[in-house]
Write a structure and sequence with these properties.
The structure holds 2 protein chains of 2 kinds.
Chain A lengths: L1 H22 L8 E2 L21 E7 L6 H21 L5 E7 L7 H10 L3 E5 L4 H14 L2 E4 L15 E3 L4 H15 L5 E5 L3 H14 L3 E6 L8 H10 L3 E5 L2 H13 L5 E4 L6 H7 L7 E4 L10 H12 L7 H16 L5 H10 L2 E2 L4 E2 L13 E6 L2 E7 L2
Parallel strand pairs in A: 2-3, 2-4, 4-5, 5-6, 7-8, 7-9, 9-10, 10-11
Antiparallel strand pairs in A: 1-3, 11-14, 12-13, 14-15
Helix pairs in contact in A: 2-11, 3-4, 5-6, 8-9
Chain B lengths: L1 H6 L3 H6 L1 H29 L6 H18 L12 H36 L4 H23 L4 E2 L8 E5 L2 E4 H23 L1 H11 L1 H6 L4 H27 L1 E2 L3 H16 L4 H22 L4 H15 L15
Antiparallel strand pairs in B: 1-4, 2-3
Classes of the chains: A alpha/beta, B mainly alpha.
């Protein structure tokens, strides 16, 4: 009799605990930040009269891992926008929830489920990379959770008919040809060697470049971005003696590859895409980075109207310079916040808001077409000079 | 692109760049070989795969990096030295790297393996402990140093030393290959000709009888780990010297390759580790040239499988403990 009473009480306690855990907030790997940093009252938000409660914008991307710099830039850009909004709208405090995918498509599905299960998240800034987008976006689409990616550039993503997919920048179908045009007309290269890192983004971009350059491509190779020794690839490049080498991939592998190419005596101009546009490239490549060309569908922050204010606010809050795609993420987050301020405070209405309305951001006007792409697209080039990345200007 | 490259191997490229590919393969293979020694020795003595050997190697790279910081050498043009100063700098970095790795290896043995050994735990338990130690060390370093690459200064000019049938062979490549060979010869001599080395071979052959013969098992095990650590430390120095970067997880890939090399050459066989490392480096490079670098790993592992099918104990077969004639 006593044993069964204890058993019964234990079972009751266990089920209560399970019930509480299931109905409680699923925080997982996310953390909430609310208004805290010093911020100017630029950007987002209407007159400060917005009312809301319990809402959050999610960031989905690499906060740790080999390509973490790119994710951190985006997360901070979005966070800045949210903090400025919260300061301007005391009755509507929006939280930022972070979902760290490490840039890997493997982690993305269960992380996406965490974001979906967190009912306070009404919009996602991200996923940052194309590989993780490919696996996470279908889940977001099923859940009706709107997303604006400030950086995933693989063109194929927009062709899936996902009604939640929106892209705040030009994709590789413009970046690839842009890079190819630069190699063709500005560098006047006759022989080009194209390398990719087998990632959704890198391979996609390299293929775009190869397709446009056609017969000028004298060789291709695919590297493993987690490896450190690229001597076989370097030997191949040396054998082909190209005028230019294009690498589709991220900054860590690009740095090592550049170093090894230069050490082997390859004098070709090195051209990269936006995944390399980060000081992490220069750290990994050292002197070998000098003279490299890096394209990006992102506007250089110091050249756009409102960029100086944004840079200053970013500096004040994060004690670092705004990085690649920080400004695009800032615009993306502000678009969501504009929707929240106008009353679209659940996932469906917010997704409808961003799908139909437009927002004038600091990088461009965000108006998405039926596939989720923007029309205001421009490809910029930067180069590495004296160990620093400097903007060269517009390509197309 | 993938299908055509697999069906039509690029023999022309292999032919034209054969010696360049060979030198590249030997350079990478030398580093695999040094790290493989740690795996093969610990296996020979304890029948344990020390998965954390990759992190011992990584700690060695950081040791060499710290040595340059203590010496006040920062990445940049002033870092380049020649002659006596260069030898001095490399010597200091080598000793510090070996010290870091050796100490880490001994500490690892004390913390992760000895308690299990004393309790007579199964080998599976030791294996799990090895994996856990590997992850713990990685994450600790990531916590302390971050997850980005850290640059190692270029301390020596990379001049072309000589040309061999069209392949330019640089000073740094020669340094890595010769340096690794020297370390391996030293280890081989130590294990085969000294009293302590005899103790290692005795325990590898039959640990109970060795105890009866007066060999202190605990000391031999510690010595084995220490030697493996020293080899990994020297590999660490060669690695940062050649690749000029390090970070918390570079041990991972190198570790897998080194372990593969150890198995390929004959696990438990020191000379097998050397052969396995060099052969693996060469196969990777030749395979990359023929079929494209995306096939590098599948080809390397395919060769491993084929070798093991024909010779299950690896290329050189004999274990550490086999009595020599």
């Amino acid at each position: 009799m006593r044993a069964s009473k204890i058993f019964g009480a234990g079972a009751l306690l266990l089920s209560l605990t399970l019930f509480a855990a299931a109905c409680g907030d699923d925080s997982g790997s996310s953390s909430a930040t609310t208004a805290g940093g010093a911020a100017s009252s630029g950007g987002g938000g209407e007159a400060g009269a917005a009312k809301c409660s319990g809402l959050a914008i999610g960031f989905f991307g690499a906060l740790t891992g080999d390509s973490a710099n790119l994710g951190v830039n985006i997360e901070q850009g979005a966070e800045l926008a949210v903090d400025q909004f919260n300061k301007a709208n005391p009755d509507c405090q929006v939280a930022v929830k972070k979902f760290d995918s490490q840039g890997s498509p493997d982690q993305a599905p269960q992380l996406a489920k965490q974001a979906i299960d967190d009912k306070s998240v009404v919009g996602i800034v991200g996923p940052a990379f194309s590989g993780e987008s490919k696996v996470a976006d279908p889940l977001f689409n099923e859940a009706g959770l709107g997303l604006i990616t400030p950086s995933a550039t693989n063109p194929g993503l927009a062709d899936n008919g996902w009604k939640v997919f929106h892209r705040a920048l030009g994709n590789d179908a413009s970046q690839g040809p842009g890079a190819a045009t630069y190699i063709d007309t500005t560098l006047k290269a006759q022989k080009v060697f194209v390398i990719d890192d087998a990632s959704e983004y890198g391979k996609g971009l390299a293929d775009q470049v190869s397709n446009q350059l056609g017969s000028k491509v004298v060789g291709t190779d695919t590297i493993d971005p987690t490896a450190t020794d690229f001597s076989a690839t370097v030997t191949k490049v040396k054998d082909a003696s190209p005028d230019a080498v294009f690498f589709g991939g991220y900054y860590a592998a690009a740095g090592l590859l550049s170093k090894q190419l230069r050490d082997a005596g390859v004098t070709a101009t090195l051209v990269f895409g936006d995944g390399v546009l980060d000081p992490g490239y220069i750290e990994a490549a050292g002197d070998a980075a000098e003279g490299a060309i890096i394209t990006c569908p992102c506007a250089p922050v110091d050249k756009i109207a409102g960029g100086a204010d944004f840079q200053k606010a970013y500096n004040d809050q994060f004690k670092a310079d705004a990085g690649t795609y920080s400004a695009e993420a800032y615009d993306a987050a502000n678009f969501f916040l504009a929707g929240i301020a106008s009353g679209a405070q659940d996932r469906e209405s917010l997704n409808t808001y961003i799908s139909t309305q437009s927002y004038v951001g600091i990088t461009k006007t965000l108006k998405f077409d039926e596939k989720g792409e923007v029309s205001d697209v421009a490809i910029y080039a930067s180069t590495v000079k004296d160990g620093k990345i400097v903007s060269v200007g517009l390509i197309q | 692109m993938l299908a055509t490259s697999f069906v039509h191997p690029d023999w022309g490229l292999l032919h034209d760049q054969f010696w360049a590919l060979t030198v590249g393969g030997l350079t990478a293979g030398s580093i695999y070989a040094l790290v493989a020694l740690g795996y093969t020795m610990v296996y020979g003595v304890l029948r344990l795969i020390n998965f954390a050997n990759s992190e011992i190697f990584m700690i060695g790279t950081f040791g060499a990096l710290f040595a340059t910081k203590w010496l006040g050498i920062a990445p940049g043009a002033d870092a380049i030295h020649t002659g006596f100063y260069l030898v001095l700098i490399m010597g200091v970095c080598l000793i510090v790297a070996m010290a870091f790795s050796g100490t880490a290896a001994v500490a690892l043995e004390r913390v992760a393996y000895r308690p299990l050994r004393k309790r007579g735990a199964t080998r599976l338990a030791a294996l799990i402990s090895a994996i856990g130690a590997s992850l713990a060390i990685q994450e600790f370093v990531a916590f302390r140093r971050g997850r980005n690459f850290e640059a190692f200064p270029r301390v020596a000019n990379r001049d072309v030393l000589f040309t061999f049938f069209g392949a330019e062979i640089r000073t740094d490549q020669v340094f890595v290959i010769v340096g690794a060979l020297v370390m391996m010869v030293l280890l081989d001599q130590f294990v085969n000709r000294t009293r302590l080395g005899r103790g290692i071979r005795a325990v590898a052959q039959d640990s109970e009888t060795a105890t009866l013969m007066g060999v202190n098992i605990d000391r031999v095990v510690m010595l084995t780990f220490l030697l493996g650590g020293i080899m990994a430390g020297s590999a660490g120095l060669l690695f940062v010297f050649f690749f000029e970067v390090t970070k918390y997880n570079i041990g991972f890939i190198i570790g897998i390759k080194a372990f593969t090399a150890a198995v390929l050459g004959g696990i438990g066989n020191l000379r097998g580790a050397l052969l396995g490392g060099l052969v693996l480096g060469l196969i990777e490079n030749y395979g990359s040239a023929l079929w494209g670098t995306q096939w590098k790993d599948p080809i390397a592992f395919l060769v491993l499988v084929l070798v093991l099918m024909v010779r299950p104990t690896g290329l050189l077969g004999e274990a550490l403990g086999k009595a020599r004639a």
